[in-house]
Write a structure and sequence with these properties.
two-stranded antiparallel sheet; UROD/MetE-like_sf; alpha/beta; Uroporphyrinogen_deCOase; uroporphyrinogen decarboxylase activity; 7 strands
Length: 392
């Protein structure tokens, strides 16, 4: 009977938490502000006292790591974050774009896979250019004959999905055990076309020069990348308004407004519009400070989710809060430097600004990467305060 009662309690808790997010995504005022902290896999591993490299190379160790985070930190979504940059398949591919440092962190060196004189080739046939030119340069093990390349691909895909399904199994088990919401997380990842061209094809240095030297080609390359980014943002099953494609926005704050207007915004808006038209919402990580582009963000489809790193929360609420869903802004640096009361006061301040009218869930300004980058007591105190006090 105890087991049955516990199961019913977990089920009721999961339903309550799921309803909080449904209300937010439906434009209704929820019972209380839902919580979705960004506790990364690196944070979880360190918090559990494990070695970063050991766990990332062996996902069979994940359950112990994630269990500790679930036990100790309040959240309405499962805080067991997926490892988006698993080292196993990158190693098999001979990746140059994502490599593990000696400390166990996956890092993204400044590399490029497309030369400036190859823009026309990419524009004419982006998929073929990626397969034949770009991938063999970024992934050294693919720089070989077609038969060997197919074998490398097969091994890498097998490793990727083995690790993915192991992690999903652990996360699903803990979601059920702790009664987390079944929605509110990230399903898959895509990129704004300009960010894709910058991140993986030309590099930061290359793209900043290209928009001056080859502006027409950059513009055409973004248009050519758009269908691939739309495809990447769609799940392999019918989408729902409670799912999301995660789109981290990288380059916009680092380019001039006139370049944003020409190169970044048109294909980015087309991407979000097309995903919404297909029934797939977007969750934007609005990196750095987008305040000069806030009126552009308003033009995106209703109920686009926006996780803000920096900026003016009052202005964002005023400009976007009646149309879009807002999260973020809470500075994780304060969790390291502030007193417990200062940290709680900041949470109260942001809730008072962002919660009225709904369309808000609590989150930090960025993912917490290391266990020593925050005071763990402050982190727990803030999450507890929001759970207990952010009622409507």
């Amino acid at each position: 009977m105890k087991d049955m009662a516990a199961t019913l309690d977990r089920t009721a808790l999961a339903e309550e938490r799921t309803q909080l997010f449904k209300d937010v995504f439906d434009g209704k005022i929820p019972k209380r502000v839902p919580i979705s902290p960004s506790l990364t896999i690196e944070f979880a591993i360190q918090y559990a006292g494990k070695n970063l490299a050991d766990v990332q190379w062996n996902h069979l160790l994940l359950e112990e790591v994630y269990e500790k985070v679930c036990q100790d930190f309040i959240s309405d979504t499962n805080p067991a974050a997926m490892n988006l940059r698993n080292p196993v398949h990158y190693k098999l591919l001979g990746a140059r774009n994502f490599v593990m440092s000696s400390s166990g962190f996956m890092q993204h060196p400044e590399v490029h896979g497309l030369e400036a004189e190859e823009y026309d080739e990419f524009i004419a046939s982006p998929y073929d250019c990626i397969m034949e030119r770009i991938l063999p340069r970024i992934y050294t093990e693919l720089d070989t004959n077609p038969a060997q390349r197919a074998i490398v691909f097969a091994k890498a895909f097998k490793a990727y999905y083995d690790e993915l399904f192991t992690a999903l199994g652990v996360i699903g088990k803990l979601t059920e055990k702790y009664g987390y919401a079944s929605i509110g997380g990230i399903e898959l990842l895509t990129e704004a076309p300009f960010d894709f061209v910058a991140d993986q094809l030309r590099g930061f240095k290359g793209i900043t020069g290209d928009i001056r030297r080859y502006p027409d080609k950059v513009e055409a390359a973004c248009e050519a990348a758009l269908p691939l980014m739309i495809k990447q943002g769609m799940p392999p099953y019918p989408p729902t308004k409670y799912g999301a494609a995660f789109i981290p926005l990288h380059m916009a704050p680092y380019i001039r407004p006139k370049d944003f207007e020409r190169f970044y915004w048109p294909t980015f808006k087309k991407l979000v519009d097309e995903l919404a038209a297909k029934g797939q919402p977007s969750m934007l990580f609005v990196e750095h400070d987008w305040m000069r582009y806030i009126d552009y963000l308003y033009e995106l489809p209703e109920n686009t989710r926006m996780w803000f790193e920096y900026g003016d929360p009052k202005l964002v609420k005023e400009k976007l809060g009646k149309k879009h869903i807002i999260s973020g802004f809470y500075p994780i640096t304060l969790l390291k430097t502030g007193t417990k009361q200062q940290c709680i006061d900041k949470a109260k301040e942001l809730i008072d600004i962002l919660a009225p009218g709904g369309r808000y869930y609590f989150g930090f300004d960025k993912g917490i990467i290391t266990a020593d980058s925050v005071d763990l007591g402050n982190l727990q105190a803030v999450l507890e305060y929001v759970a207990e006090n952010a009622h409507y």
